[in-house]
Amino acid sequence: MMHIPSLKYKTKKQPIAELKEASVYRIPLQSYRSTLLPLVKIGDQILQYQVLAEDVEHQFAAKIHSPVSGKVIAIDEHYISLENDFQQQKITTEIIEFQQLDLERFVQVLKDFGIAGIGGAEFPTNIKYKVEGSEIKSLLINGIECEPYLTSDYAVMRHETEKLLKTIAVLNQIFQPEEIVIGIEKQHKELKKHFEKSFKNYPNLAIRIHLLTNEYPQGGELQFIKSVTHKEIPKGSIPANFGYLVSNVGTILAIYEALFNGIPTTERVITISGNAVNSIGNYRVKIGTPIRHILEELNIDAEDVDIVLGGPMMGKEVADLDSPIKKGSGGLLLFKKQQKSIENCIECGYCVDVCPQHLMPMQFVKGHQEDQNLLSQFNLDHCIECGACEYICPSNLPLMQSIVLGKVELQKMRYAK
Amino acid sequence: MEWIRQRLDKFKEPFGKGKKLEKYAPAINALDTFLFTPNHTTKTGAHIRDGVDLKRTMITVVLALIPALIFGMWNGGYQYLHQLPEYADGVPFMDAFIEGAIKIVPMIVVSYAIGLGIEFAFAIFRGHEVNEGYLVTGLLIPMVMPIDIPLWMVGVSVVFSVIIGKEAFGGTGMNILNPALTARAFAFFAYPTYMSGNTVWVHNASEIDGVSGETILGKLASGTEVPYNTMDMFSGLIPGSISETSTICILAGALLLILTKVGSWRIIVSGFAGAAVMALIFNSLPSLGIEGNDLTNFPWYNHLVIGGLAFGVVFMATDPVSAAQTMKGKWIYGFLIGFFAIMIRIFNPAYPEGIMLAILLMNVFAPVIDHYVVQGNVKKRKKRLATVKEVKTA
Prior knowledge:
The complex is a heterodimer.
Chain A lengths: L1 E2 L5 H4 L3 E3 L5 E5 L1 E2 L2 E2 L1 E2 L6 E2 L4 E4 L9 E2 L4 E6 L3 E6 L18 H10 L12 H4 L9 E5 L9 H8 L1 H15 L3 E7 L4 H10 L7 E6 L2 E2 L4 H9 L14 E5 H13 L5 E7 L7 E6 L4 H7 L7 E5 L6 E2 L13 E6 L13 H5 L7 H8 L3 H5 L10 H5 L6 H18 L1
Parallel strand pairs in A: 2-18, 12-13, 12-16, 13-14, 17-21
Antiparallel strand pairs in A: 1-15, 3-11, 4-5, 6-8, 7-10, 8-9, 10-11, 17-18, 19-20, 19-21
Chain B lengths: L1 H11 L12 H11 L18 H28 L11 H34 L6 H11 L7 H16 L12 H12 L1 H4 L20 H7 L7 H6 L11 H13 L5 H19 L10 H4 L2 H6 L3 H8 L10 H21 L6 H34 L7
Helix pairs in contact in B: 3-4, 3-5, 3-11, 4-5, 4-6, 5-7, 6-7, 7-17, 11-15, 12-15, 12-16, 15-17, 16-17
C-alpha cells in the first residue's frame, strides 16, 4: 500500500447539496458482471421507484428502479432512457416491519430494493448478506474512502450519522455479531468523536471506531478486513464465509432508505472535484442522471478535460457526456489532460512495493505483451485492479491496460481448455 | 520557449510519418522530449500519476553523484600535487581541483559523446526512443576509472558496455549486468596494466620519482604498511579510482537516493551489513587460532570505507535493472554483494577490487533470487490460506 496526496480538503467541508432534476434519465443496464434485462417497453408510462430491469437469468446484479415518474423513450443494450414528467407519482411500497425482520425476509428486501455495493463494484448486497449458517463474528462498516478527491462517504458519515446508526442497529439484531467496527481513515479522525457522541443513544451496540492509516487502497474489501482483523482472505471468496460482513457506509444508507422509507436505491451522494474545476462539492444525485446535466447545472466547462466517473485511481474515463451516474460512482472528477510517455520497464520494483495483494505487476505487462503463461504464473487472478502500480510506475507502463486485457486473455485460455 | 517550439516543429517536419527521414525520427524525438514534455500520452488506468518518472529518477541519481564527483576531481589533483616539493606547505583547493578536472572532464565528455552516439544509432536502427538511462551510466563509467587511464580506453570500454552490456540484450531495462560495471570489468581485464598496480591511481605517479601511488588494498595485499588512518579513509584522502575514495561524499549521495526512494535502502543497508559480517568473520580468525594476513586482520570498519565498496553498494548495486526486484530479494542480493566483495578482496589479492566482481556476480543471480523468493511467498501464502476455513468462490 502507499500514500497518495488525498486532496480531500477541497470538498470535505461541503454539505450534501441537492441538484435539480434532469428532464431525461439514462438508466444503466450494466452492473457488476452482468447485464440487466429490461422489464419495460418503449412508450410505457412508469412510476417513480418502479422496477425497470432485472438480471433474470443469473440474479448476479441488483435490480434497478426508476428514479422519477415518466415515459420510456428508448432502450438499447446499455441504457433505458426515461423522460421525466416531473409529477413524482410514486409506486406504493409496503412498510417493512423491521422489528420482526428475520434474515430470509431481510435478504429479500435487499433484493427487491436493488441494494448493491456503493463502494464501486456494485456487488449485490443480498448475495453478500446471505450468510446461511456461517456465524458472523464482526460486522465491519467500511468508511474508508481511499481514493483521492472523493468525500462522498465522508459526507454521509458526517451528515447522516443517525440514519447509519439506526440501520446498524437493525443489522445487529439480524446478524448478532460479536462486534461492530466502523473503519475510518486517520485524516478524518474528527469523525471518531462525532460518532462516539451518537453511540450513547445505542447502549446495546458493541460498536467501536477503528482508525486506519491514510494508505491506498485501504478501502478495498480484502485490505480493509486485513487491516481491521489481521486476517487475510483469498480473492474471490465471500467474506461472510469467514465470519466477516463488510459494507460501505453508502450501502448502509441505501439500506436505511429501503427499510425506513421504502425507497429503493435510486440516488447516491457523489463528489464533484478534480484539478480542472472550480465548482466542487458533494451532491445527492439520482442514478441515471446524465453527466451532461450535472455539468450544465453547475456551469462546468468540460472543454479539453478528462472526465472521470468514480475515483481518480479506479474510475473510468467518460467518452460520452450522456453517460449516466451509476450506483457505484462515488465521484465525477475533471482532470487536466495528462502528458506522460511510456518508457521501458527498468524493473525498479516500485509496483512490487505498493501492490496490496503482494503481486509483481510488472510481470503482467510482460505477460500481456509477450508470454501469456506469466499471467497465471504470477496470479493475475488475485489482482484487485486498484491501479496503485500504475500510479507509482516511473516508466508510465500501461499496467492497468495489461491487467484488464490480461484477465480477458486468462478467461479465454480457461475456456479453451 | 514558444520560439524554440516552433523552430523544433518546423525542423521535425521531414521526420514525420511517411516522410523521407522518418527512420531518424527517434533521434529528433529524443531531443524534443529532453526539452519539452512529450505529447503522446497513456489513455487507460489511473487518472493521476505520481510525479516521479524515469527522467526525474535518472536526474536524481546524477545529482547524488555530484558530491563524489567533485571530491574526486579535487582528490585527483591533491594526491599528485601534495607529493611535489613545491606544494610542501599545503595544496590550494583550486589548484588541486583544476589539476583533477583537466584529467576527468575529458573522460566524461568522451564517455557521453561515444555512449550517446551509440544509443542514438541504436534508437534509429531499432525504431525506439532514446532513454535517459545513459545519463547515469555515462557519468558512472569515468567515475570508477583510474585517473590516468588513456581516453581511448575509456572510449573502447564505453563501446563495449553499451553494445555488449546493454543494447545486445534489448536496451534500457533489459540488460542483465550493470553497464557501468561492465565497462570497468572490460577495461580491468583487457588492459590490466592500466587498471591495477601501484602507479595508476595517482595522476602522473609513474613520471615522478618518489611519488607513492598505491591504494590501501594494494598495500595490504603486498604487505606494506598502510600510512592512512580511518579518518583519511572515511573522508577519502587516499589514492583510488576517481570517485570511489570519499565514503562521506558517497553517503551524502546515498542519503539523497534513500530519501527520494530512488535507490533501495534495503540494498544499501544489507550491502554494508554483508561486508561487515564477512570482515568480522575474518577479523575473528586469530581468536580461533588461525593466523591471518594483513588483509584478514584489517579492521572490519576500515574494510567498509576503503576501495570501491561504498561506491559500488550505493550507486552500482542499487541499479534497479540489474538488481533483485522483490523486497526480500533485495535484502539477500545486497547482503551477498557485501559478503562476496570482502571475500574476493581477501582470498584473491590479484583482484583487490572485490566489489566489482561481487556485483557482477550477483547481477547474474538476481533473477534466481527473485524466483526463489516468489516461490517461497507463493508456498507460504497457500499454507496460510489453507488454514482458514474452506473457500467458497463467488
